[in-house]
């Protein structure tokens, strides 16, 4: 009976994995076709011979590598700032005691319930008053701390950092920031790995806010640069899908290399000893 249950679970997991991977395979298939081939019924599930040609066309018709560098700069800078400020705030909420702590944390959680679309107009108004419209500062600084990251680090620190360790550090004369930097931060590494991947992917895939803020094509992110593939009267879908495939590959590579840290960050914070 146990073997049958294990076999059923493995079969279910295998089917779930195949269903999860199929969209990526279908993206590869569509990127390797000509525009006329994608309208065939029934569609062909075999990879075509136009992939390299479509990749060359995407690179020729867009400032792909320049936009890739812009996106990397924004995503990496944003992620580093998020890790620092969110870990600092999360540690403070978890292990420090100060006046108004409960109210501030409740207010922080309340901001997570506000749809991001409602913040677009006031955020743009603020960026305009600061003179940041058209600059990378408007893409990086407003998002250098977020409610989810602070909540995530706070919960992780509460479950994994013992108070006795912090008390011992205080007795040894460590300052609060030294305790955070030398003791708490190394313990947070699994949670920070998850937050880094989550923040990097969010910044990499962001389309709406760069579309509103950036007004110079030389500063376009990769998602904005790929919009140049759309024609006025027609759309070459294989080229668009090829551009999407090229933009997705760095995230897939990143996930493959950091998948262990991602899973560890999720499970470690959920297990109490």
From TrEMBL:
<feature type="domain" description="ABC transmembrane type-1">
    <location>
        <begin position="68"/>
        <end position="258"/>
    </location>
</feature>
<keyword id="KW-1003">Cell membrane</keyword>
<dbReference type="InterPro" id="IPR035906">
    <property type="entry name" value="MetI-like_sf"/>
</dbReference>
<protein>
    <submittedName>
        <fullName>Carbohydrate ABC transporter permease</fullName>
    </submittedName>
</protein>
<keyword id="KW-0472">Membrane</keyword>
<dbReference type="InterPro" id="IPR000515">
    <property type="entry name" value="MetI-like"/>
</dbReference>
<feature type="transmembrane region" description="Helical">
    <location>
        <begin position="72"/>
        <end position="94"/>
    </location>
</feature>
<keyword id="KW-1133">Transmembrane helix</keyword>
<comment type="similarity">
    <text>Belongs to the binding-protein-dependent transport system permease family.</text>
</comment>
<dbReference type="Pfam" id="PF00528">
    <property type="entry name" value="BPD_transp_1"/>
</dbReference>
<keyword id="KW-0813">Transport</keyword>
<feature type="transmembrane region" description="Helical">
    <location>
        <begin position="237"/>
        <end position="258"/>
    </location>
</feature>
<feature type="transmembrane region" description="Helical">
    <location>
        <begin position="179"/>
        <end position="201"/>
    </location>
</feature>
<keyword id="KW-0812">Transmembrane</keyword>
<feature type="transmembrane region" description="Helical">
    <location>
        <begin position="103"/>
        <end position="127"/>
    </location>
</feature>
<feature type="transmembrane region" description="Helical">
    <location>
        <begin position="133"/>
        <end position="153"/>
    </location>
</feature>
């Amino acid at each position: 009976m146990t073997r049958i249950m294990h076999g059923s679970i493995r079969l279910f997991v295998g089917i779930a994995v195949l269903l999860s991977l199929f969209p990526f395979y279908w993206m590869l298939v569509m990127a390797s076709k000509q525009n006329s081939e994608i309208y065939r019924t029934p569609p062909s599930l075999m990879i075509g011979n136009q992939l390299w040609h479509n990749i060359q066309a995407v690179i020729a018709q867009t400032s792909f590598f320049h936009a890739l560098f812009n996106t990397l700069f924004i995503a990496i800078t944003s992620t580093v700032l998020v890790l620092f400020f969110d870990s600092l705030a999360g540690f403070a909420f978890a292990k420090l005691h100060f006046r108004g702590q409960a109210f501030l944390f409740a207010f922080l959680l309340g901001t997570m319930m506000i749809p991001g679309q409602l913040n677009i107009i006031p955020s743009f108004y603020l960026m305009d008053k600061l003179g940041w419209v058209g600059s990378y500062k408007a893409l990086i600084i407003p998002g250098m701390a977020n409610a989810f990251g602070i909540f995530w680090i706070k919960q992780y620190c509460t479950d994994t950092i013992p108070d006795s360790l912090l008390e011992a550090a205080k007795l040894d004369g460590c300052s609060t920031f030294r305790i955070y930097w030398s003791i708490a931060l190394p313990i947070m590494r699994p949670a920070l790995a998850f937050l880094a991947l989550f923040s990097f992917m969010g910044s990499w895939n962001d389309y709406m806010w760069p579309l509103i803020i950036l007004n110079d094509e030389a500063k376009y992110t990769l998602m904005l640069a790929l919009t140049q593939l759309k024609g006025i009267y027609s759309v070459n879908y294989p080229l668009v899908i090829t551009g999407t495939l090229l933009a997705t590959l760095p995230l897939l590579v990143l996930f493959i290399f950091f998948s262990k840290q991602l899973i560890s960050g999720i499970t470690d914070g959920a297990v109490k000893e």
